[in-house]
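Re: folding output
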Amino acid sequence: MTINYKPLMLSAFAAVVLSSCGGNAPILSTPIENIDNTPIKESELTEAEAHNWGHLDLVKDTIPGMSVDKAYAEIIKGKKGQQIIVAVIDSGIDIEHEDLDGVLWTNTDEIPGNGIDDDKNGYIDDIHGWNFLGDAYNEQLEMTRIAASGNTSIARYNEAVEKVEQDYQRALSNKQRYDQLYTQVTNAHDVLSKHFGKEDYTPKEVSEITSEDQKVVEAKAAATMLYGYGLTSMTEAKKQLKGGIEYFTDQLNYNLNKDFKGRTTGDNPDDFNDKPGYGNNNVMPSVKSESHGTHVAGIIAAERNNGLGANGVANNVQIMSLRAVPNGDEYDKDIAKAIRYAVDNGAKVINGSFGKSFSPHSEWVRDAIKYASDNNVIFVHAAGNDSKNVDVEPNFPDDNVDFVEISDTYIRVGALAPSYGTKMIAGFSNYGLKNVDVFAPGAQVYSTTPENEYDTKGGTSMAAPAVAGVAALVWSQYPKLKASQVKQIIMDSGLPVKSKLIVGGDANNIKSLSEISKSAKIVNAYNALIMASQISK
């Protein structure tokens, strides 16, 4: 299933719902022997910390960030480095966003709006990238497409048919449950708002209610239950439930609907060479809710310290927008074409915050990943949000066949939560000793969303661009490094956490980082820059 649109159990609350009813001194790296002695942060994150936690320092702030702010303050300072093009293969990106409009890649070999392929790269008027989806947004899951084909010769056909039916019934049941809960929460909120004479009442005020009105008593009980799930307001509860309703509605109407036809580009997605240049040059989101690509782009490159909402990891990048990820599962053809477009048009880093469990043309994407590697380009991929071991259960795309890698520049990233300690691995994050390279901040990440707005989202979709940003930052400062060296630096320079961690959100599944990732480390930009400086000498 597509990583970016799977809600991360819609917060802890929804998980319960679904289951129950410097200077001249030498620069020193973080002393890794002290990492496991770092105190656990007991207090709630301030708003500033919550909006920037992925950039904070584990030792200084007791938050498992990537030490980005420390790197700028003590290492980069005023140095800009060499500009790096980062391709974001995702949903549409709001290229007019106030925090992104200054960091866009522009194809200077193309004359805008003349309807001619001036640079002869096969794409007409591709000024800021390309849109491989055309006018489409909603799509089926890959297993739904396989089941709907009726082609029993397709690999895993029977598995797809069975899983589509199971998931459809589950989505139907969950939507009904969310509808009921949304009505209950809305009614309780209306009662409490009337009782207080305002809508922004606090949990403390609710706890102090004394009333003989049965409706108020019932509303207090409902609110108290929700607060116990970690929510701080009934408005937030309504938002979470509404998101769940929309998600399951999309599953029923599009993702798991075997009769739905979403593709509008006129090509044959099962023929890699059919209709070259399909799609169009409009890389903007088709609707405001198509916010994922904009959020990812902001994590990498939102303009730093400009007084606006978010800071990107990298300070000297251009974002190339490649719209290829719909509200459903991406087509292998689109992803393979997008990777090759990025490589051929100068990208040095490619971010792929998408993924699925079925991939009928996985070899097309794998070949494209090798093409990137052969051309000295890094491909950063999100590990997925199914709380599973991807060494055992497939998650595409990948860079190997039976664990024999075809690329030395592919990085697969798991997600961290903003809490140092046993719960540091985000409960939704996939993992795998052989198939997940590193972990990086991915839960509760604040970044750009369409129409000059900002929001908090979570997923390995957010962890991947954090690492793509670090790759661009390191490469910008040390441009003579090879892509494979940048990857190895990111893996080797991270912070090793040796304590036991809860994995997959399962309190009974306790493992160390060395058991769930290849590097056994969490990414650290500060240390990566130090190691890069040493290797570049």
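--- second protein (sequence, then structure) ---
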Amino acid sequence: MGENATASAKRTRANAGGLKIERVWTKDGVHPYDEITWERRDVVMTNWRDGSINFEQRGVEFPEFWSVNATNIVTTKYFRGAVGTPEREWSLKQLVDRVVKTYRAAGEKYGYFATPADADVFEHELTWMLVHQVFSFNSPVWFNVGTPSPQQVSACFILSVDDSVDSIMDWYKEEGLIFKGGSGSGVNLSRIRASRELLSSGGTASGPVSFMRGADASAGTIKSGGATRRAAKMVILDVDHPDIEEFIATKAREEDKIRALRDAGFDMDLGGRDIVSVQYQNANNSVRVSDQFMDAVENGKPFELLGRLDGRVIDTVDAKDLFRKLAQAAWECADPGIQYDDTINDWHTCSETGRITASNPCSEYLHLDDTSCNLASLNLMKFLGDDGSFDIARFVKSVEFVITAMDISISFADFPTQKITENTRAYRQLGIGYANLGALLMASGLPYDSEAGRQLSAAITALMTGAAYRRSAELAGVVGAYDGYARNATPHQRVMRKHAEAADALKPQGPVATLVAKEAQKQWKAGNALGEKQGWRNSQASVLAPTGTIGFMMDCDTTGVEPDLALVKFKKLVGGGSMQIVNQTVPRALRNLGYQEEQVEAITEFIGENGHVVDAPGLKPEHYAVFDCAMGERAIAPMGHVLMMAAVQPFISGAISKTVNMPETATVEEVEQMYFDGWRLGLKALAIYRDNCKVGQPLSVAKKEAPAAPAAAVAPVSAPVVEKVIEYRPVRKRLPKKRPSQTVSFTVGEAEGYLTASSYPDDGLGEVFLKLGKQGSTLAGVMDAFSIAVSVALQYGVPLQTYVEKFMNMKFEPAGMTDDPDIRLSNSVMDYIFRRLALDFLPYEQRAELGVFTAAERAARLRAEEEGVEYIPPAPAPVSADAPAAPVPAARIGSSTEVLESITGRVSDAPLCYTCGTKMRPAGSCYVCEGCGSTSGCS
């Protein structure tokens, strides 16, 4: 698969004078920077544990229209150079110039441009598009291009491993090098002989699952080493491998271990000290199924498992039973996912070189072994006009610019191994994609789960990939086809015709979709005609990636192919602080649907208060579906996500990074059906996640019901209080029927709950109610009983300070990080609750004796100590008996996921960010943090 010796000469012969570049976004004689109003900002990031500053760079320069979030993430993630040194980048101009000028220089070096003037236009157009957030390269480009570091541009890698110890050790090493650079990789282990096969020495083989342990431990260690983001990996096994049942059960069995260890008192939180004893947690697992297997499942036939050494039948199993085990495991812990081997290879442009056996961690990059793919994503909202039109001409030209730049990068890029270097340069895989599809559909007044929405999405995707391959064919005429094209001309042309036929079969609804589909058909026809004459520059052109961190860089409301997460979002403010706002897509959609401005304001205000549109004043019920989201009151049904994937899949070279969320009540049979429907609908890969199925995940509802240990610890504590009340026979002072109260939602470790505290009119705590766990669960019952006991005791005169002294620092699980800025870490739920009550109801002097302070008080005390002066606490503000319940401060909400939960009362299974502690939000098949831009493995 390596680059042949005549590649350079072939490129020279193919050069037809270089590309002529036309202006699209820029003006002749005006630099893109001169059209923008720039402003200076301060970026200060605080530590979630104690409020201390963990990053500070003041005076950074960004366009005025960039959000605070985008500014913070680009400054902390992408600016190079040590903070505080002259070498540190401080302006977006420096970052964009570092990348764009490198691309321009390489384009001139390798003969992409006809004249220096064309190179100038290319540089200006790329600059304009980046600073105006029209598109973004994947993160490794921003990390590495134009720096002294290796010029790594790819985020996605596929490795290979053969049936030998040397090859397995190479796999460990290569994977580690990729993780070190912050990228992810995938590998198919099906060449490794099964545990039921013999070694040459006569012993029995270990099997692929055993070797997964070593790779998993390596990934976990490198993840903990503080790289750009945690290690991301995919492990795949073919369905006909004799060890397939063990592979399927691997992670589900480990989840059982987590339950048992946690219930025994071990720290099994994500990132906990004891979670490292659990194996296989650093990889996504997928089973590669064939059409033969799926037919056997459908018809209830037996299925043969084949040896790796000689292909002989090792075992025969019931296909339907094996498929049920696959669905059962996915239902229990979300792993393994499924990949449809024959569909993948039916759309393979390079089948003469070899089969596609694996994918990257998120399953969007599918190609040859030992290759890589660099990604870039377009912001679709930048092409949506105020009148609902789609700017087709600019979209096509933008695709041309991006594809040209991405291909240039392969010419100068560095890669972690020699094999990947040779193969990537020989096949030049690209992954153009998009973000903000969900926002575009909503703004256009189209439900995500509708045929009209799917057809517009399919048409846009067809146009993007069609224009990309047409540009690739033009590049082949200038700098030559990819080196592997001659060998693969027949399969490549066949796949191009399949894409074109799918575009011709589009059935658009509405004038916008019709125009987009018509242009897509035109692009495919022109591109195929040109490609059949002179070949294509790239064996792959498009994928749909999660667009995690770069989605924030472009200020996108939605990631990849996803719908909107929710109708409300979290927004950071200039100068600090945050606020909850209704997505700006909502009023735009309402106007497109014909609502008057007064109606738009009323509906938007309702959404801001309730988080959904049901019963919004003046909103027609037939328009509710336009505002359906991934979470909340009107969540899109799982099949709606699958149908959207099926609509766009025929127009993607690779596949789609997306996890289909299913409700907790979903059955194993529904998972089976979902995996079957994915096969019938022509998907290449599919993964599901059933709410609360992973006990090792923080903040999951299921885990709140499980721990019996905390409940047992709480019950005896109330008994002495009751005995004390009986013994001294004090007079009970009951609360009046109408009394002031406040409710605080809280999270401690994996447990989420609500604390309602009511006080006497003359101020003083008199009643406490705790909700922890589902209604009807044992833990919820114990909490109710405990609340009543404490409340009665308070009314009989037991001082709150006594409770705080007794329960503060009590240790039991769940424990750990909280979402309260005043109490960042807690030893237990009891520890948190009574610290919170102390902060809310005890005077400063009593709290000072106990060592309980707010974050502001701790900061002020520290400043006073540094300045050598005495700290004087502020006088408490008078509290009115009729004052409304105190709302949870905006600062306690750190992400859009938490905003939604604060309104709906539902809990997302999203993990907490390893870097800043903010609750992450879904982005494709991984998660991304709105606080600092960190991802769980995807660019």
